[in-house]
Amino acid sequence: EEDSLSPFLRLQAKKKQVQLMQKALEVKEEDFRQRMKDITCRWKDLHAKEAQLKTYMEKSGRTLKENDKMRIQALKKASEEREKKMQKESELLRAKGELEALRNKHQKLCNRVQKYSIFNKYLEDVVKVSQFEEIQEIIWRYKTLARVHKDLLQSQQRHKEMSEQAKVLLDQYMEEKEAEILQYENELVQLRLRFDQAQSDILSWETRWADIQNMTAKKTQQLGTIKLAILNLFQ
């Protein structure tokens, strides 16, 4: 009986063990499902928080961009304002300088007017004793005479320059002609030398021609004599 009960007991023990393992597995499965449920919930919460964080980041990014844009605009405006201020200050300084220069010029003109007032009095006296009715007519007359005098000086200068240029050209022409005359004189001397040499050669050739003629006459006489002797011998 003990031998026959042992497999049965072992089987019962295995069944009990299997049941315990099944219960443990069910508990673990239930625990796993619960944990998966918790993980799913937490995952959903994480996704929701991530979406919220993304929305917040986008909103924060837009806000930062707007803030940067406003800051850049503010800096740009401040820079433009500084530039305008500096430009206005520069223009103000330049205007002050121009005003000071105009004041100095005005003072100089006043001093010059004061200095030349005596000439105005002189011109008024000239008008009284001359054919002119106003000082301006005297000034116009003076300017006309000065312009005519200037034109005359310019004309005289042009004539002087033309005269000097003509003199230079004449000197050049004279130098060229003197050089040509010297060249012609040298050629004439060479031609005279050649002529003298030719005359000397003519005398020499005439002498040689006379000698040739004399020799020819002698040869002709000798030939006649020889011919006569031959004729006599032949006869």
From TrEMBL:
GO cellular component assignments: cytoskeleton
Coiled-coil region: 72-112, 167-201
Record domain DUF4200: where: 12-128
Keywords: Coiled coil
Top-level division of the source organism's lineage: Eukaryota
A single GO BP: spermatid development
Protein name as it appears in the record: CCD42 protein
